[in-house]
Amino acid sequence: MVANGLTTFAEKPEPSRSDCHAWSASPNYDLLATVCGIEPASAGFRTIRIAPYPGYLKTIKGLVPHPLGMIEVNLTHEKNRLTGEVTLPKGTSGIFVFEKEKIRLIGGKNYIK
Fold first, then answer.
1. CA distance 87 to 110
2. Measured between alpha carbons, how far is residue 28 from residues 69, 78, 93 in Å?
3. 58-67 contacts, C-beta under 8 A, 24 or more apart
4. Which of 11, 32, 38, 93 lies at a C-alpha separation of 20 to 30 Å from 26?
5. Could you tell me the domains of the chain?
6. What is the value of pTM for the model shown?
7. What is the per-residue pLDDT across 66-80, written as a single tens digit (0 to 9) for each?
8. Are 86 and 39 within 8 A, CB to CB?
């Protein structure tokens, strides 16, 4: 699709055009909400839950815009362990969940070890 100059998902094989439909955003949402695990933990996204599911991926990186700034996930996955950084906007808080571990997050940079 990129080679054909499309900027959104095509509805059918060629000949086609780039129609911007809501379903075309689902891969972006799935990457950020499922793989990166970035989701609201309370109404209005005042608190944030980060519960990544890396599967076989070795690195996970993602950015989600928030009214107070960017939410950033930058993690490395090795031997069923995650390490890296999670950055939340100032004025927010959250929780990081991976398997049975839970870590409180604060606004700013948080280190996952």
1. 6
2. 19, 24, 24
3. 60/35, 60/36, 60/84, 61/36, 62/31, 62/32, 62/35, 62/36, 62/38, 64/32, 64/36, 64/38, 66/92
4. 93
5. 39-112 (2.60.420.10)
6. 0.80
7. 999 999 999 999 988
8. no
Q: Which of 54, 69, 48 is nearest to 99 (CA)?
A: 54
Task: Report whether 64 contacts 83 (CB < 8 A).
Answer: no
> DSSP strand E in the chain: where?
38-40, 47-50, 59-66, 69-78, 81-98, 101-112
Q: Is 11 helix (H, G, I), strand (E, B) or coil?
A: coil
Helices (H) and strands (E) in the chain, counts: 1, 6
Q: Are 102 and 84 in contact (CB under 8 A)?
A: no
